[in-house]
Amino acid sequence: MFAAIDLGTNSCRLLIGEISAGRPQVHHDRVEVVQLGRGVDATGRLDPERVDAVVTLLADFARDCDRHAVQQVVAVATSALRDAADRDDFVGRVRREAHLELEVISGEEEARLSFRAALAALPSPPAEMVVVDFGGGSTEVIHGRHNQVATAVSLKIGSRRMLERFLVTDPPTGDEWQRMENHLAAAVADLPRPGAAVPLVGLGATVTHLSAMLFGGDGQQPFDSADLAPLSQRLRTTPMAARRALLGFDARRADVIVAGCGLVAALLAHYCRPIQPSPYSLRHGLLLDRFGP
Length: 293
What we know:
- With 293 residues, the chain is an alpha/beta fold.
- It has twelve helices and ten strands.
- It folds into two domains: 2-107, Nucleotidyltransferase, domain 5 (2-Layer Sandwich), CATH 3.30.420.40; 118-277, Nucleotidyltransferase, domain 5 (2-Layer Sandwich).
- The protein has helices at residues 40-43, 48-67, 79-83, 87-97, 107-121, 159-166, 174-188, 205-215, 225-236, 240-243, 257-271, 282-291; strands at 2-7, 11-20, 23-33, 72-77, 102-104, 128-134, 139-145, 148-155, 200-203, 275-277.
- α5 (107-121) crosses α12.
């Protein structure tokens, strides 16, 4: 039994499982919203309150691993710790108090693991595809050919980063929304566009949750710009307290979902094709990469 921990800007995820026929067989999957990256974009440092909460959670994750008789654990951190000047202090505290070795991975490594996850989720991967991993602090965009990464880029346009930088009013003003849209459009403008037949695959809670809000179910139904536009309008004009009550909405993400919606919309507008949400994410790719054949 193996475990993979993904400590992101907004969420922390624990996946415990085995690997069979090139896919993770999940025994335990836990996701907690921790907001470790709160304020990091502005200050370059971690919020002490968030640090305390995350270290406590990681210690609890370690106990989960003990209860499931996990043989090996791999734990990685992404955008928030890449940007935080005090990340070494945090990593040391995690080692002392949670007894976990936390690796801060690069954006390129994050992209590679996300691509591996996307591949594993597809029964018959296409010869070419674009994979987008929507995170809280960064967004990874990978162009793959024949099951290999052709190009990969990590962009500093995650949902929490965009929320804190642009959407300071609840609900956001039209000017705030426009400034964020302009920023996102400029950030993705240079991404190469493959042929129209090349599929676009999305990873992360943002894209799966938007699909679930649009169509219900497990959030695996593809959608395009025309599908998303009415939902985007509704979300960005609804105060956060009311957003929590929306049907099918995960209240823990009520703050970041508006910026996340704008982020997904920017990629849909750029690539001019539907996006297919993936059931896998970075933690699945991490488990396969470190413990698979």
